Amino acid sequence: MHNVTIARVYVKEGDKVHGHNLLREVFHLLHDEQKVRGVTVFRGIAGFGSHGEVHAEDLLRLSVHLPLVIEFFDAPEVIAELLPRLQQLVPSGHIVSWPAQCTG
Asked: Which of 6, 16, 90, 104 could disulfide-link 73, Cβ–Cβ 3.0 to 4.6 Å?
């Protein structure tokens, strides 16, 4: 077993950063630049944030901004180095992380 850090980033579909799709920018950083060990993106069917605005899948809405969770892990020092760069892309308070153990 060895120590890793797991991190989650909470965003919405269609969120932008510097005029670009936020999900794509974060994924590019994690996959292409930092090459973290594992990344999964989860698409929620409903959610709300600190402002209480509900985002939900609804057949009557044509434009839906559903919640996305980007989860990734790597060695603690890799994640510690990465988080400041990620915080420049993602709104404040939308990143959580915790220590874990990885088998194998």
From this structure: 6
Spatial distance between the Cα atoms of 31 and 25, rounded to a whole number of angstroms: 10
Could you tell me the CATH number of the domain that includes residue 26?
Answer: 3.30.70.120
Residue 65 domain boundaries: 2-102
Quote the CA–CA distance of 78 and 16 in Å, as a whole number.
25
The closest alpha carbon to 14, from 88, 68, 95, belongs to 68
Q: How many domains is the chain partitioned into structurally? A: 1
- Closest among 86, 54, 85 to 71, alpha carbons compared: 86
pLDDT digits (tens, 9 = 90+) for 91-102: 999 999 999 999
Q: Alpha helices of the chain — where are they, by DSSP H?
A: 22-28, 76-87
Q: Look-up: residue for tokens 């920018």?
A: 25
Digit-coded pLDDT (tens) for 29-71 = 999 999 999 999 998 877 777 677 776 666 555 556 788 999 9
pTM attached to this predicted model? 0.85
